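Friendly challenge for the regulars: who can give me the C-alpha cells for this chain first? No prize, just bragging rights.
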Amino acid sequence: MTSIVEHSKYTKISSGVYIKWAAWVLEYDQYKYPKDLEMVSELIVKNLELKFCPPRYRELNLGNLLFGHCYHATQALYFFFKDENLKTMSAKCKSPAEQHWWLQDGDKIIDITAGQYEAFDFDPPYDKGKETKWYGWRNRPHRKSQDLMKLVQPSANLYFKQYEEKPEKSY
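First reply, four minutes later:
Bragging rights claimed.
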C-alpha cells in the first residue's frame, strides 16, 4: 500500500495564524506487520548514519552505533507500519540521551535500538514508558526520519513540494 509522510513547512503570518506553504513529501510502500518487522528493523539499523544522530550525541555514538538513534529509527519504523495499531512510547532514562523511544503492540515492546543499553549498567526505561506524541511542531515527522526511510526503501519518492511562495511575516 502506497503511503505519504509529509514534513510541512509553515510560516507564522500573525499571532496564532500559520500558513502551510511547502512540504517535504515521501511517497513509499508500507510493509506487512508482523511479517516484515524483522526485515524492516534490520534495514533501518543497517542504514543508520552518524549524520542522523543529534550533534551532541555523535561522540558517544562512535563507540555505541545505536546510541542517539532511537527517535528517528522508531519514527521510521512506525511509518513503515503506520496502519497498524502500534503505540509510540517514550520515557526518561539514565543514559546521556535522557529520553528513550520505542513502539509497543499491546504488551509487546518493539525497540530496534535497545542494543545501545548493552554499554550501560541499566536497562531501557520500559517500566516508565508512556504513550507519546512525536517531537516537533504539530507532531510532524522529522526530515531525518524521511531520509532514513528513503535509504531503507530506495524505490520511495522523496521530493519538495511548494504550494505557494513563502509568505512574509506580517507581525
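The longest helix spans residues 70-80. Helices lie at 37-46, 58-61, 70-80, 143-152. Your move, everyone else.
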